[in-house]
Amino acid sequence: MDIKKVYGGLDPYATQRLQENQRAQQSQEVNRQNTASASQQLGDKVALSPEARLLGATMNAANAAPDERAEKVRNLKEQVQSGTYKPDIKKAAANLIRDDLNLIR
């Protein structure tokens, strides 16, 4: 026996959900068409959320800030290459634990 395309045989609300989904898709398509025709007439627009604006301002400020750590990084690279770098293991462990605790909170 072959049963094909049974909608709502076991679920009395399946037909209703199917119809609602079809209506929603049709309204989305109409909205897309209206938006497309409106943007063609008025030009494209971009709207940024406040979070996106804050992120952009933060990135601009970070990129504009002088690189004050460049000297420290250069010194550390030289120490690593020469083999004289001796990290503080206890400080590194404390920082790792602090970072893990911050992830839990």
What does this structure look like?
The chain has 105 residues and is mostly helical. Among the domains are: 7-38; 68-105, no CATH class. Helix content is 70%, strand content 0%. It is built from 4 helices and no strands. The model has no long low-confidence stretch (mean pLDDT 80).
Q: Give the strand tally.
A: 0
Taking Cα atoms only, what radius of gyration do you get, to the nearest Å?
Answer: 30 Å
Ranges with pLDDT <50 over ≥5 residues? none
Q: What is the element string, with H for helices and E for strands?
A: HHHH
Helix content: 55-70%
Classify the secondary structure makeup into a structural class.
mainly alpha
Topology of this protein?
Elements: H1 14-42, H2 50-64, H3 70-82, H4 89-104
Q: How would you summarize what this structure contains?
A:
With 105 residues, the chain is mainly alpha-helical. The protein has 4 helices and no strands.
List its traits.
105 residues; mainly alpha; 0% strand; elongated
